[in-house]
Write a structure and sequence with these properties.
The protein is an alpha+beta fold and 144 residues long. It has 2 domains: 1-87, Winged helix-like DNA-binding domain superfamily/Winged helix DNA-binding domain (Arc Repressor Mutant, subunit A); 89-144, Ferric-uptake regulator, C-terminal dimerisarion domain (Dna Ligase, domain 1, 2-Layer Sandwich). The chain has helices spanning 5-15, 22-34, 40-45, 52-64, 108-125, and strands spanning 68-72, 78-82, 91-95, 101-104, 135-138. It binds zinc ion (ZN) (2 copies). One zinc ion binds at residues 95, 97-98, 100, 140, 142-143.
Length: 144
Amino acid sequence: MAPDLHDIVDEQLRRTRQRYTRGRRQLVDLLVETGRPVTIAELLELGASQSQSSLYRNLAILEQCGAVERLTSTDDVARYELTEELSEHHHHVVCSVCGRIDDVVLPPAIERALGAAAAEAHDQRGYEVDSHRLELVGTCGSCG
Ligand SMILES: [Zn+2]
Ligand SMILES: [Zn+2]
């Protein structure tokens, strides 16, 4: 049986000598629910029942242990999402007006082409490429 998401986070936190508190579990649940990177303000709107300072601290601890990734957007406001270890490989599309970020899962043919780009980086510059990021920038449905 595949390990439960919460078991993985629990293990990640243990490795950094932190506990999986109720507040942290709630944040992981909220990030699973939203399915896109969200700001602290959005986490509060979504019902995170903790003070803003606890939110910052819990997110920093979840980031430190590798469960959460912090992204900065076009509006310079930090957004948080689960790392790919806990979700799936994906890319981001960013709104240049309001800073909203959504996840995009690309078809295998495009991922293969990005793999070829890694080989190209190796051939041209001698890098061993082990991952890639692709960010699409545009205008979201609310701003367009
Ligand atoms: Zn927008
Ligand atoms: Zn990819």
